[in-house]
């Protein structure tokens, strides 16, 4: 399986395991400098293209063979946002999110080496502490 298929599979397994609706998943070939994104209002997780992800993995100092392990952490990171959103209606990198990150096996960090963006309306962003 390629990175895209692995990511889709991982999301399906996580949604089943945590008993929440499956977020939509899409590769976004336009992503530059962002590798993952969660959009709660669209129920959507997006990743950069597999080519871009592989380049990013390499530039980050990982072996190509570790690409999936690294990208899986991004998928799980975004899924932890989805869990927090479904359960609490918030999106953050708070202690609550970190607990979900640990629960899904993601490194509970905001971004160390992982560039992502959580997108929602400005009003909603203010409501949730400006993330
Ligand atoms: Zn995040």
Proportion of helical residues: 40-55%
- The number of helical elements comes to 5
> What is the subunit organization of this protein?
single chain
Tell me the strand order in the biggest sheet.
Answer: 1-3-2-4
**How much strand?**
5-15%
Summarize the helix and strand pattern as letters.
HEEEHHHEH
Contiguous uncertain segments of 5+ residues: 120-131
Please supply descriptive tags for the structure shown above:
48% helix; 131 residues; alpha/beta; 13% strand; Zincin-like; globular; single chain; 4 strands
Provide an overview of this structure.
The longest helix has 22 residues, at 67-88. A hairpin with a 4-residue loop joins strand 2 and strand 3. This protein has a 4-stranded mixed β-sheet. The chain has helices at 3-18, 50-59, 67-88, 95-103, 122-127, and strands at residues 24-28, 36-39, 44-48, 116-118. The protein is globular and about 35 Å long. Residues 120-131 have low confidence and may be disordered. It has one domain (3-127): Zincin-like (2-Layer Sandwich), CATH 3.30.2010.10. The protein is α/β, with parallel strands linked by helices and 131 residues long. The site of zinc ion (ZN) has 5 residues, from helix 3 and strand 4. Zinc ion binds next to helix 3 and strand 4.
């Amino acid at each position: 399986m390629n990175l895209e298929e692995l990511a889709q599979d991982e999301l399906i397994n996580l949604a089943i395991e945590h008993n929440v609706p499956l977020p939509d998943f899409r590769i976004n070939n336009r992503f530059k400098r962002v590798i993952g994104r969660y959009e709660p209002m669209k129920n959507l997780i997006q990743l950069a293209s597999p080519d871009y992800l592989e380049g990013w993995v390499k530039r980050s100092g990982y072996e190509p063979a570790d690409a999936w392990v690294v990208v899986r952490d991004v998928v799980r990171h975004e899924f932890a946002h989805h869990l927090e959103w479904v359960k609490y209606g918030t999106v953050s990198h708070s202690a609550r999110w970190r607990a979900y990150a640990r629960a899904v096996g993601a490194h509970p960090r905001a971004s160390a080496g992982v560039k992502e963006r959580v997108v929602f309306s400005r009003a909603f962003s203010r409501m949730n502490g400006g993330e």
